[in-house]
Amino acid sequence: MPPEAVADIRSFSQLVPLNVTRFRFDDAFLDQVGLEDLPVASRPLFYLVGYQTLESHVGGLLCLGMPDHLLDEFGCFVDKDADRMHAWLDAHQPGWLERSGYRLVADANPGAVEVDVMSKYGTALWLNLVVPDYAETIMSETVQLTFELTQWRDDILARQHEAQ
User: Fold this and answer.
1) CA 108, CA 55: separation in Å to the nearest integer?
2) 0.85 cut: is pTM over it?
3) How far, in Å, CA of 122 to CA of 115, rounded?
4) For the stretch 19-52, what's the b/e string if a residue is b when 16 or more beta carbons lie within 10 angstroms of its beta carbon?
5) What is the DSSP letter of 113?
6) How far is the C-alpha of 38 from the C-alpha of 91, rounded, in Å?
7) Distance in angstroms (rounded) separating the CA atoms of residues 134 and 116
8) What's the N-to-C CA distance of the chain in angstroms?
């Protein structure tokens, strides 16, 4: 996509909200899937594994059939390669440091170092440009994982009680 077309993109705040990509594994989610009796001590690990599972499923689907050059392009945000991130953002979103979207990400992450803010902002921008339906993929996989956890609820709870 030429830089002049990207410059006309909707403002960052109108892009798919970043919280869509941050599905929350929390007590409310446990209630939703019937795991409210999961021992408190087990919850942090359960949340971590759940998040990693969702991230893996979504990442696999988004990468399916994607050309290597796009995967490499996205890799600069994953690797937090400041030089490559700067180059991509300069080419695809001129003036990105002054954009309200960048400020929104920076303000939402107080105390974060610039490379982390740049990575979060660039990831969201890249996904919106290259994989415009990524939010639907996330939501679809979230629904699927929720369904699976609901189905496995009794097994999960039984294993937790055996482990205690």
Assistant:
1) 21
2) no
3) 10
4) eebebebeeebbeebbbeebeeeeeeebbeebee
5) -
6) 48
7) 21
8) 55
Residues 6+ apart with CB under 8 A from 135: 16, 20, 21
Whole-angstrom Cα distance, residue 156 to residue 107?
38
pLDDT score of 135: 84
Helix residue ranges, H only, the chain: 3-7, 27-32, 43-63, 68-78, 82-92, 100-108, 114-130, 134-163
**In which residue are the tokens 């599905």 written?**
23
Cβ(106)–Cβ(73) below 8 Å: no
DSSP 129-149: HH-TTHHHHHHHHHHHHHHHH
The mean pLDDT value for 59-87 works out to 93
Choice among 78-82, 121-125, 133-137 with the minimum mean pLDDT: 133-137
